[in-house]
Design goal:
This protein is α/β, with parallel strands linked by helices. The chain has two domains: 227 residues, no CATH class; 251 residues, Phosphatidylinositol (PI) phosphodiesterase (TIM Barrel, Alpha-Beta Barrel). The chain is built from 20 helices and nine strands. Strands 1, 2, 3, 4, 5, 6, 7, 8 and 9 form a nine-stranded mixed sheet that branches. Helix 1 crosses helix 4, helix 6 crosses helix 18 and helix 9 runs parallel beside helix 14.
Length: 515
C-alpha cells in the first residue's frame, strides 16, 4: 500500500504520534502488521459522532445566550452567587469542540496518508467523557430549561439556509477521505455500507430545503414595519434595572414602553422592584443585615430610601456593557435609589414614554390593597391613562371600572369564544409561531414578545410582523435598520441549486481523484 504523493514520512509519523500517543514510525517496513481494524473503524465512527454531538451543543449554547441572563438570576436566587455563567458555558464548550475537532482532523490526515487509525486509550477515555458531559448538558437543558428547545426551533428560521450550506460543505469535504478509505479497503460489505449511508445522507441534505420555511424569505416590499422596542426594566445593559437612570437611558434608545415591576411597601407606597428579596439589586445586606432575607414588601418606604440601588451594577457587572460606561455614567449609577411608582410616572409623563408593569407578588394576602394603592397613584399622577399598560390579571375588572382609559395587556393567547376581544398580548417569544403572529396582525391585535436580545431573533420576529419586543439590549436593536438577511424566494432557490450542484461535482471529482 503506497503512500499518496505529497505525504512525507516525518509528517505521517507526527500524525501517528499525536493520534496514537506513541512513537510509531510511518515507514512501511517498520510497521508490519500494523493496520486499521474493525475496532479502530468503530472508534473513528464514535469520534465523528462525538464531534457532531458537541457541534450541535455549541449551536444550542450560542442560541441560549439570548436568555442566559435569566439563568444567571436563577443561580443567584438559589445560591446568592453572581457570575456570568455564559462565559463558563462558552469556554467549556469551546474546549470540548476543539479537542474532538483536532482528533477528527488528525484521523482524516492519517487516512489520506494511508496510515493506521490507532486511537490511544487516553483519547478514547476523554471522548467518552466528552460525550457524557454533552449528554448531561442536553439532559439538564431539557429538565430545567425546556423552553429553549422551542428557541432552537425558532433559530432554524434564521440560520437554516446557512446551516444547509455549511453541512453540505462539510459532508462534501468528507468525500476525499471516504473515497481514500473505500479504494484502499478490501472489505466489500463495508464499502457498500459506507457508500449507501453517505449517499442517503447527501440526498437528504440536497432535498432538505424543501421542508425549510422562514419568514425572512420574502420580497423587500413585503417586509413589515420595524417592531417597537419595550425596555425590559428600562435599559439594564446601560444602567441599574428598574431605576430612573434606566428609564432615561431607555428613552435615549428610542424605547416606546418602559416595562417594569411594581411592589407596595409596608406603609402602602408602590415602588419598583423585580425580585421578592432586595439582595440582588440593593445593598440591603449591609444596611439591614438581619432583615435582608425578608420580602421586599416588608420594608417601609423610609427604609427603602436608605438603600443604594446602583452600586451593585458596577460591582457585579451583570452585562459586559458595564465595562464601557463613562465616568459620568458610573457616578450617576452610584446615586441611584429605589424609585417610587409616583416618581416613575412623573418621569414617563415628561418624556412621553409609556409604562407597562406587573404587580408583585401575586399570591400576597394583601394583593387587593396593592391594586388599590397602585391605581390611586396612577390616577393622582395626572399621566394620560393611555400611556399606562396594565399586565396583572388579579382584579382586572375592578381596574377597568375605576380607570377605563388604562390599556389592558394580557399574558395569554386569545380564546375561541372571547367575550371581549383582546387588543394587546404580552407573551414569551417561544409561545407564538410566525403564522400566529401574522394572524394576530391581520386581526389588529398588538403582539409584544419577550425577552429579545439578539439580532438574529429580532430579525425573525421583524419578518414575522410582531408589533413590539421587550429587550435588555435596546442600544443594539435601535441601530438595526434592516433584518440581518432577507431573501426573495427566487434568489433562495438559485442559491440552493448552485450549492447542491457544486457539492455533487466536488464529490464526483474526489472519487475520481482517489481512484
Amino acid at each position: 500500500m503506497a503512500d499518496p504523493p505529497g505525504c512525507c514520512h516525518p509528517c505521517a509519523t507526527c500524525l501517528l504520534c499525536l493520534y496514537s500517543c506513541q512513537w510509531i514510525t510511518a515507514r512501511k517496513e517498520k510497521r508490519k502488521g500494523l493496520r486499521t481494524t474493525k475496532c479502530d473503524c468503530s472508534w473513528f465512527l464514535f469520534l465523528f459522532c462525538v464531534f457532531f454531538f458537541t457541534l450541535v451543543w455549541l449551536y444550542f449554547a450560542i442560541i441560549i445566550l439570548n436568555d442566559f441572563h435569566n439563568f444567571n438570576e436563577f443561580i443567584f436566587k438559589q445560591r446568592k452567587l453572581w457570575l456570568d455563567w455564559s462565559l463558563v458555558l462558552l469556554i467549556a464548550t469551546a474546549m470540548l469542540i476543539t479537542y474532538s475537532a483536532v482528533l477528527l482532523v488528525l484521523a482524516f490526515c492519517l487516512q489520506l496518508c494511508s496510515q493506521p487509525l490507532k486511537l490511544h486509550w487516553l483519547h478514547k477515555t476523554l471522548l467518552i467523557l466528552t460525550a457524557l458531559v454533552v449528554a448531561a448538558a442536553f439532559t439538564g437543558l431539557g429538565i430545567k430549561w425546556a423552553e429553549e428547545w422551542r428557541s432552537a426551533h425558532i433559530s432554524l428560521q434564521a440560520t437554516g439556509p446557512f446551516l444547509h450550506i455549511g453541512i453540505v460543505g462539510g459532508m462534501t469535504f468528507l468525500a476525499l477521505p471516504l473515497a481514500s478509505f473505500i479504494y484502499h479497503t478490501c472489505n466489500t460489505g463495508l464499502k457498500v455500507f459506507l457508500l449507501l449511508v453517505y449517499c442517503t445522507v447527501m440526498i437528504a441534505l440536497y432535498l432538505a430545503p424543501l421542508g425549510f420555511t422562514s419568514p425572512c424569505i420574502m420580497e423587500e416590499n413585503q417586509l413589515p414595519a420595524k417592531p417597537a422596542l419595550v425596555g425590559h426594566r428600562g435599559a439594564p445593559m446601560l444602567a441599574p434595572e428598574n431605576t430612573l437612570m434606566s428609564l432615561h437611558k431607555a428613552v435615549d434608545c428610542d424605547v416606546q414602553v418602559f416595562e417594569t415591576d411594581v411592589m407596595v411597601s409596608a406603609d402602602g407606597v408602590p415602588f419598583l422592584m423585580h425580585d421578592e428579596e432586595l439582595t440582588r439589586t440593593t445593598n440591603v445586606q449591609a444596611v439591614f443585615p438581619e432583615r435582608a432575607a425578608l420580602n421586599s414588601t416588608a420594608f417601609n418606604w423610609t427604609d427603602l430610601q436608605r438603600l443604594d440601588a446602583g452600586s451593585w451594577f458596577l460591582e457585579r457587572r451583570p452585562f459586559p456593557t458595564v465595562q464601557s460606561l463613562s465616568a459620568g455614567d458610573r457616578y450617576e449609577v452610584t446615586r441611584q435609589r429605589i424609585p417610587s411608582l409616583e416618581q416613575v410616572l412623573e418621569a414617563a409623563k415628561q418624556t412621553n414614554i409609556s409604562i407597562m408593569f406587573d404587580l408583585r407578588p401575586e399570591n400576597h394576602s394583601d394583593y387587593q390593597s396593592f391594586v388599590n394603592a397602585t391605581l390611586e397613584v396612577i390616577l393622582e399622577s395626572g399621566i394620560p391613562l393611555q400611556q399606562v399598560l396594565w399586565l396583572p390579571d388579579g382584579f382586572r375588572e375592578q381596574v377597568k371600572q375605576q380607570a377605563p382609559g388604562i390599556q389592558q395587556v394580557y399574558g395569554r393567547k386569545r380564546l375561541q369564544n372571547e367575550k371581549e376581544p383582546l387588543l394587546h398580548v404580552n407573551l414569551p417569544y417561544q409561545d407564538m409561531s410566525s403564522e400566529e403572529i401574522r394572524q394576530y396582525r391581520q386581526d389588529n391585535i398588538s403582539v409584544n414578545l419577550y425577552v429579545v436580545n439578539k439580532p438574529w431573533l429580532f430579525s425573525v420576529l421583524w419578518c414575522s410582523g410582531v408589533t413590539s419586543v421587550t429587550t435588555n439590549a435596546c442600544q443594539v436593536l435601535k441601530e438595526m435598520k434592516h433584518p440581518i438577511w432577507l431573501l426573495p424566494s427566487s434568489t433562495y432557490l438559485m442559491i440552493w441549486i448552485v450549492v447542491d450542484c457544486a457539492s455533487f461535482l466536488a464529490i464526483l471529482w474526489a472519487f475520481l481523484l482517489m481512484k
